[in-house]
Write a structure and sequence with these properties.
Distance between the termini: 30 Å
Helix content: 40-55%
Bound molecules: farnesyl diphosphate
Largest sheet: 7 strands, parallel
Radius of gyration: 19 Å
Number of helices: 7
Strand content: 5-15%
Number of strands: 7
Shape: globular
């Protein structure tokens, strides 16, 4: 078993004490995996897992906001998820509507601002409207940003940026020498997150050890924490343990240890 792997049975309530509240990661990004397996284990339809997953989103949003996380990015639907059966896609498209219908007052109470990255123009009208409403209703909040990746894919994002930059070069408004890493960063969908564009830590639940097209540009120096827990089973202790694991890493950004 690899060392960065946290098994459920290694999660010990006492370890929570190790969490250093002065060094909470500013941007936490999560690949919320395992809804289907959670449901399957209970002989329930897959959508029951997504419904419970939505409740977990509410819990984790509150926990992260209380800890002082600045940005919580959640991978809710990828550009590849359209390949799932129509009934599942349709249920997933309804979730943001359900979520914001019931949760916006609490988001406002907690000073949380909603943002979205992804191709939202391709979402069903009602889904898009729910997301845009939530962004509008929370736009003046100054606390944590709850950033949903919805119809998001890292390769698609980079491709769009390359197309935009190539068009500018073609029309003569941008010189090739002006194409820098800073220009690319500020052209990504995450540019709206200002100084918190790049995740400090990416957490993936449910045992898979891969990135699945999530924030490919932005994770260059992120730490990765992989958990066996299925997303609907994520709770405060496991979330804090993932942050403890992050705090034990030695981030050097290509330099030497200070
Ligand atoms: C991956 O699990 C999960 C998804 C593709 C959907 C994630 C969505 C939620 C957690 C709810 C989102 C809530 C809001 C408010 C938008 P999976 O279905 O691939 O699980 P499996 O690998 O076990 O089949």
């Amino acid at each position: 078993m690899v060392s960065f792997w946290k098994k459920n049975n290694e999660i010990d309530e006492n370890n929570e004490l190790e969490l250093d509240l002065e060094h909470i990661p500013k941007h936490v990004a999560i690949i919320m995996d395992g809804n289907g397996r959670w449901a399957q284990q209970r002989h329930l339809p897959r959508i029951a897992g997504h419904k419970e997953g939505m409740n977990t989103v509410k819990k984790v949003t509150k926990i992260a906001s209380d800890l002082g996380v600045k940005v919580l990015t959640l991978y809710a639907f990828s550009t590849e998820n359209w390949k799932r059966p129509e009934t599942e896609v349709s249920y997933l498209m309804g979730l943001p509507i359900k979520f914001f219908d019931t949760f916006v007052p609490e988001l406002i109470e907690n000073n949380v601002r909603v943002e979205v990255i992804g191709y939202i123009d391709q979402l069903p009208t009602a889904t898009r409207a729910a997301v845009e409403n939530a962004m509008e209703q929370t736009k003046d909040n100054t606390g944590m940003i709850l950033n949903f990746a919805l119809n998001y894919g890292g390769r698609a994002e980079i491709t769009t940026v390359v197309q935009e930059i190539a068009s500018k070069v073609q029309e003569g408004t941008l010189q090739v020498a002006e194409i820098t890493t800073d220009l690319l960063s500020s052209s990504m969908m995450t540019a709206k997150l200002d100084q918190y564009q790049d995740p400090d830590v990416v957490i993936r639940t449910s045992g898979e050890i891969r990135i699945s097209n999530f924030l490919l540009w932005q994770v260059a120096y992120s730490e990765f924490v992989f958990l066996e827990t299925h997303w609907p089973d994520m709770n405060e202790i496991i979330f804090k343990q993932a942050l403890v694991e992050y705090q034990q890493r030695n981030r050097r950004f290509g330099g030497l240890k200070k």
